[in-house]
Specification:
Rossmann fold; alpha/beta; six-stranded parallel beta sheet; globular; 597 residues
Length: 597
């Protein structure tokens, strides 16, 4: 009788290699940094459900409906468990970022398992023993854990159990990634860290007296402090503690006696998948929301007692800054307005961006970098981050110390960790890397020797990215991890980017010559944004194949400015920047005027 073994993760100790057939659930099982585990095996890799991108985008709507149904049910449950009476908006701020990402991850994992069982009904697998399960402490544990193998093995195991599948299990020693405070560095950096540590302790007691509080602004501390001074200290910066060092600390109280009752939630949705998600909640709802809730809220009540805050402003804090989420939820219930500021590319342009949707739902005002003037709740403003880059460029143009061509690359996790319009899961990530290599190989030698390639430090996700680049293009020059990549962008004669993210916005609005390219089938755009990207394509700035981008580079180098300053390229980037990347040296005055209105 033929035996079929299913490998769900890259943890080879959980592979049954004695089976007649070995089936890899996805390409994430094949880590480049562990080739010895699989190079000599005869295996089959299953297709991924989101290779059908239209199916993925349809699923995004379904996932949001499951999320909304569970959020409403969890809000009632949490109020009962903690003896509270908070509204849905309160729990949306605290639970929402984790819950939507969790539903998206569980949905994709479930579809993969269902497809494997349908394709190979008699397969067997090895799961994680119950004694090796680790309940996430906070949202970051879920987000980072969802990109690695042990937590995914836990998720697959919990799902298979909920689906009624019998399998053997093994123990695994593992823990969540720890947070280590940064040490060393230059004197200014050490002083900055000292200031932040001191301000975490006493800052809330001062900041709460200010009408405007700024948290996680996606800006250097010095810039935030200058803006605070510009406002006459009427807008103050508040530094929140890291979740791992918050009052509850990494060691929350013992398991809450009502945690098991999460499996009995009764949301309005009754479909099979929603019920499966509910069955997995006792093992995966972060402890901060159950065991740690009381001590965390007590910290908020104590440190933000009698606040004078009228507006709380954040850029990138609502996803995983747990103290901020608790503070924002509390202040909103007391009448303060929450302003969320765009913090990167793809906002306003990607066909689906879950963080944009979460932030716009949570905010009283959402400040974009130019788009959305006709959309409710969206206020276009100039971007401080982009304004800072434009200023850096003006300085850099006078010294000319930077690389001739600076290629700012990216990387993607092996596992699907959120549903959005970009490469998701290992197969599409490999496709993305292959495009990088094809581009580099197609460059003329005289062009390539002037290029510095910036790997995606510090995340590698098990890809061995540096080794892959060197193997594909042995003569390539790599940027060092310790170099300031923003300075590299500002000082470059030409920047190459291959994702619809922040770098392209920075370069276009700062008059930095740019060649961009990406797979349009993995970076889907919303209809209202498409014309602006089409004009970039027509001007030779944006390309939809690595060969086209390399050919353009070979043609324009080294006389880049002749092309860049031509009427077509100039008009395309100006129109694009006005829509998606506004910057202004006087951004502080404009921001304070907007905050004062």
């Amino acid at each position: 009788m033929t035996s079929i073994s299913l490998c769900t993760t890259a943890l080879s100790d959980f592979w049954d290699t004695t089976a007649n057939r070995i089936v890899m659930l996805g390409q994430w099982c094949l880590r480049n940094d562990r080739r010895d585990d699989w190079r000599d095996l005869d295996y089959e890799v299953l297709p991924h459900p989101w290779d059908d991108r239209e199916a993925m985008h349809r699923a995004a709507g379904y996932e949001e409906s499951v999320y909304q149904s569970l959020l409403e049910c969890l809000a009632v449950f949490m109020n009962q468990v903690h003896g509270e009476s908070h509204g849905l908006d309160y729990w949306r701020l605290i639970l929402g970022p984790w819950l939507l990402h969790y539903v998206q991850v569980i949905h994709e994992r479930h579809l993969c398992l269902e497809a494997a069982l349908e394709r190979h009904p008699g397969l067997r697998t090895i799961g994680l023993a119950a004694g090796s399960f680790r309940v996430p402490r906070h949202t970051d544990d879920h987000l980072l854990g969802g990109m690695d193998d042990p937590y995914n093995l836990q998720i697959y195991t919990a799902l298979l159990q909920a689906m009624g599948f019998d399998f053997s299990s093994r123990q695994l020693e593992w823990e969540w990634a720890g947070w280590a405070p940064v040490t060393g560095g230059s004197l200014p950096k050490r002083l900055s860290r000292k200031l932040r540590t001191w301000w975490r302790a006493i800052g809330p007691f001062w900041a709460r007296r200010s009408p405007v509080v700024l948290v996680d602004m996606y800006l250097p501390l010095a810039t935030v402090l200058r803006f605070s001074l510009h406002t006459g200290l009427r807008a103050l910066w508040a530094e929140m503690p890291h979740p791992d060092e918050w009052p509850a600390g990494p060691d929350f109280p013992a398991s809450h006696p009502l945690r098991a009752e999460l499996a009995g939630l009764k949301p309005e949705r009754t479909d099979r998948f929603t019920q499966l998600v509910i069955k997995t909640l006792p093992d995966n709802l972060p402890r901060i929301y159950m065991e740690g809730y009381r001590v965390c809220r007590d910290w908020v009540v104590r440190c933000w007692k009698r606040p004078n805050v009228k507006k709380l402003v954040t850029s990138n804090g609502l996803e995983s800054n747990e103290p901020l989420k608790f503070v924002a939820a509390e202040l909103k219930e007391r009448g303060a307005r929450l302003i969320v500021v765009q913090h990167g590319g793809s906002y306003g342009s990607a066909r689906y961006n879950p963080n944009e949707r979460l932030e716009r739902q949570a905010a009283d005002e959402f400040w974009s970098w130019g788009w959305g003037e006709d959309q409710e709740g969206v206020r276009p403003v100039v971007s401080p981050k982009l304004s800072r880059m434009a200023r850096m460029r003006q300085t850099a143009n006078r010294n000319g110390r930077g690389p001739a061509i600076f290629y700012v690359s990216n990387a993607f996790a092996r596992y699907h960790y959120r549903t959005w319009s970009c490469p998701t899961a290992a197969g599409q990530a490999r496709r993305y890397f292959e495009w990088q290599f094809r581009f580099l190989q197609a460059l003329a030698p005289g062009v390539r020797q002037n290029l510095i390639f910036r790997p995606y430090y510090p995340y590698d996700y098990g890809w061995s990215l540096v080794d892959m680049v060197k193997q594909a293009c042995p003569d390539i020059v790599l940027d060092e991890a310790g170099h300031d990549y923003t300075r590299g962008i500002a000082e470059a004669e030409l920047v190459v980017c291959d994702v619809n993210q922040t770098t392209m916005l920075e370069t276009l609005t700062s008059d930095i010559p740019t060649i961009a390219f990406w797979d349009a089938g993995l970076w889907e755009l919303r209809p209202e944004a498409t014309p602006f990207f089409t004009r970039l394509h027509e001007a030779g700035i944006l390309h939809f194949s690595p060969g086209s981008a390399a050919e353009a580079m070979n043609q324009i180098w080294p006389d880049v400015r002749t092309w860049w300053d031509g009427p077509e390229a100039r008009a395309a980037r100006r129109e694009f920047s006005l829509r998606f990347a506004r910057q202004d040296p006087a951004w502080m005055s404009q921001w304070w005027k907007a905050l004062s209105s």
